Amino acid sequence: MNPRVMLVLFLGVGLVGGLLFLRLLVKTPTVVTAPAVALERVFVTTRPLQAGDFIHDKGDLREEQRPASQVPLGAVHSLAASGGQPGYVGAVLRQPVAAGAVLLSGQLVPVDASDFLVFALSPDKRAVSIKLASGDNVDGFVEPGDKVDVVMRRQANGTIVASGVAQNVRVLAVDRRLVPGKGAAAAAAGKPEASAASQQRDKPMFVTLEVTPQQVADIMLATDMGVLSLALRSIRGEDQTPIPHVQVEQPQSPKPDSKPNGATVHVYNGAADTINVQF
After folding, report:
1. Which of 39, 162, 218, 247 minimizes the number of CB atoms within 10 Å of its CB?
2. pLDDT by residue (tens digit) across 46-78?
3. Closest CA to 227 of 175, 160, 171
4. How far apart are CA 228 and CA 184, in angstroms?
5. Torsions phi, psi of 15, nearest 5?
6. Which residue did the predictor score with more confidence, 13 or 261?
7. Measured at the alpha carbon of residue 88, what is the angle toward residues 82 and 89, in degrees to the nearest 5?
8. Residue 110 in contact with residue 91, Cβ under 8 Å?
9. Is the pTM of this model over 0.70?
10. What whole-number distance in Å separates Cα of residue 129 and Cα of residue 210?
């Protein structure tokens, strides 16, 4: 074979081999797309919560989206009732929960649970219900979770007396309602056309309070002595100023005039004495 042809063949084989070797060295890496991470909605506490605290939308929780692999079993995904799951708005905590922890369903007692009120009570407190006076000064504005003072009014020995019975106590329930909502006054403010009769039907009759054992006795005694009313407290601060004891003289009804106001007629009967007849 011609030496030139052989040289060309060797050069061609060498060039093809070099190209193949170079391609192996600079092989384009395969791009692998990571699978999408499934996210789940959870609720995280913004501050330490204690056993007996109510779950309300007041800044105690924040909503987060976390990878499903990082969500603990039993995490609460919705506060509202859905898909056969109970709602947790107004629920009470069974145990303390640290700040930044994911809220779990096992830590909560739903409002409709039979043991709700037992867990809502603080360990050293009792629950007592009182009947509201007609036309109470905070009628329709008191909601579960509010703080109130209990005041007694009574009449005795020609005087009217008002005095504090219990101070800074928590409202557990209004009638049988355990979750805050629109009272009669709030509903009427949003519906000007509401009739007086419907507002009257919506007014609460009883309030259940969380009190100390001593306050239980004080309230029971005050219930027999007079009429109880509530004074709504501010959510800001813990004012300890006591309700003063106030006593005023009861206005006296005017005494009837002893002098006769009718006309007098003189009746003469012949020679007999005159008879005066008062009308």
Report:
1. 247
2. 989 888 888 865 678 899 999 999 999 999 988
3. 160
4. 20
5. -65, -45
6. 13
7. 105
8. yes
9. no
10. 9
